[in-house]
Amino acid sequence: MTSALVLSHRNVAYELGHLEPWLDRNGFQVRHIYREDRPEFVDADLLIVLGSPNSVATGYCEQPADAEIAMVSKWINHDRPYLGICFGAQVLARALGGSVQRMADKYRSYTRMNLTSNAPNSLSGPWALWHEDAISAPASSTLFASMSHADTVFVQGSAWGVQPHIEFTPEIVARLGQVINLSPDHWESMFQEMKDDELDLAERAGQFLDTFWSNANSLVMGSEEIR
Hints:
The protein has helices at 19-25, 63-77, 87-95, 170-179, 188-196, 198-221; strands at residues 3-8, 29-34, 46-49, 82-85, 99-111, 114-115, 127-136, 142-147, 150-156, 159-162. It is an alpha/beta fold.
């Protein structure tokens, strides 16, 4: 059975959302580990690193985040499939020699990204972005998407950094806003836009994950065009 290791916090940004049906459909055996336990990565076919209130931005990176960069660096050096979402993408950027900078304001929006000509078709359409640190992708990576303030999707080998929360459902947005005591003014419009687009969003998330997994695995058998 194919195994997936998921790293997150225990009580915030831990929900699998759109990842869960995709993992089930592809027969993954999932093990969830938590940052609060200061875990070490165990052997698996896929590592997924989710969001975090921690930071790897210049001047804001503390020891636990430094340790996570080191662990991810070790993982990708073995060229094993890696999917970093939001904070997980920022960790990947640092592990590969890119940079992460703190922004003046948090960015929360359900919006489209600027896609490169070789970006997967499944990245078209709006996605949930919720972050305060901005990635400059490593020069060695292939950039697929960006915003005016940051690079948002990049790939190197079988490791993918994805700033948008492709796992987010409307309900996750609402629960996250409530858990961190955020005024509804900051998340209700995002929730409603995602709710109106719910079926298409779920389909695109599944298609993107299929693209990621197909191309991460294709490295074993040779290069393959990303679609």
